[in-house]
Design brief:
Elements: H1 14-24, H2 29-36, H3 40-54, H4 61-68
Helix pairs in contact: 1-3, 1-4, 2-3
């Protein structure tokens, strides 16, 4: 990560913080858009801008950043798919 400040944390707006938390928790874009009352395309654009600001290369890197700054307690896990 590119740390723009000495403590390694950016000053994120409330909306950026909410977006980062939801993305780090692997909440689907469509659900995030509904939560924030935005279109899914706006959420994609905001994610892209946030990734640029944080110096990340992929959406998965946002999880690591959220962990680093204490926004989430642990990385989300996905349940294994069961045949059925």
């Amino acid at each position: 990560f590119r740390d723009p400040k000495e403590d390694g944390r950016l000053d994120l707006t409330a909306r950026e913080t909410a977006l980062l938390r939801d993305l780090a928790l692997k909440i689907p874009i469509k659900e995030i858009a509904t939560r924030l009352d935005l279109s899914k395309w706006t959420v994609y654009r905001m994610r892209s801008v946030l990734m640029q600001r944080l110096g990340t290369r992929s959406p998965d890197d946002l999880v690591g950043y959220a962990l680093k700054i204490g926004l989430i307690a642990s990385a989300p896990t996905t349940a294994p798919l069961t045949p059925g």
